[in-house]
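Tutorial handout. Part one gives the primary structure; part two gives the three-dimensional structure as tokens.
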Amino acid sequence: MSQSTDRKKTTLLKFAVAVASSLAATAAIAQPLDVVKIGWPAGFASNMAHLTFGKELGLFKDENLDYEVVSMQGTYPVIQQILSGGFDTGYVGVETVVNALQPGATPLPLKFVFNYTRQSIWEIVVPEASPIKTLADLKGKTIGIAGPTFGNVPVTKAALGAVGIQPNQFTFFTVGSGGPAFRAMTTGQVDALNLWDTMHATLEATGFKLREIKPPAEFEGNPSHGFAVRDDLIKNKPEFVARFGRAIAKSIVACDANLEECIKSFWRAYPAQKPQGPENEAMAKEHKILSARMKKLMYFGPGEKPLMGSFTDAQWQGVIKSLKLGGVISVTDLPMDKLYTNRFVADFNKFDRADVIKRAKAATK
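Part two.
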């Protein structure tokens, strides 16, 4: 065989390898992203900015993911959609699975995989000049809530029950959120608001001074929300769950590293949500609001390992104890493996935190 023929064969072989590699790369690039359908128990606001920032930075795409977020009115509609397969996951209240394991209730075929709001977002606030100083002072009062399906309802009943106030000794009044809720407070239609951290921060950003009524000590430090998924999804698509949680973890870290650009990413995704007026004033307001939420997302108790998404038995026991104290539940000896799993926590945290922070800080436009 001549050297010329050998060279031709070698050239053809190299060409074939190059074409194959190119096709493989093209196929990889063209591979469609898996879409995570997420239920959100409230309207869209800057407290979800870590999602938009994570998307802009490519943190979801790094996991071969995209997402769709659907707004619902409260935790229970989101739970229903998760169970029916309408959502893959949702940001929902942890009390749901505890309540579902009580006598006469129907256990839910899902569990929590990611501890999201590591400190409770639910707050009870009053005008700064209000004579109401403690939970006990709410006896006979009207408390504004976003709606009866929101997760604060059983938690607040428990907190009031813990100080001896029975359900017939106060009134929940639905005020929604945003403007209607603020008007209910400022006009005296309600004595207190029982919404969430960022909603109260939004009201304070307008110049209206609020004072928080602290819950009993047993309620302090308890998580309020996590991402829950069906048991069959955990069994059949564990890597999907792992990739989703890792994308969420990275996005939270990124947002915390560059709060201002995180907020701007939310405005770019949802321009109608950008506050009116000069941008510096809008940013100052949103910065205060999002800061309130990031404290909850990045909270770790004394001695707790800073592992994003992780739960502890002690945290769940705190939730259970508080609900029992308030008379919302009767059975407290519950199987932890029916409530949550830390199976994916190592995977959630399998990323270069320094690199994520670097990407976040470099994103300033």
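Part three, for discussion. The longest helix spans residues 3-30. The first strand starts at residue 34 and ends at 40.
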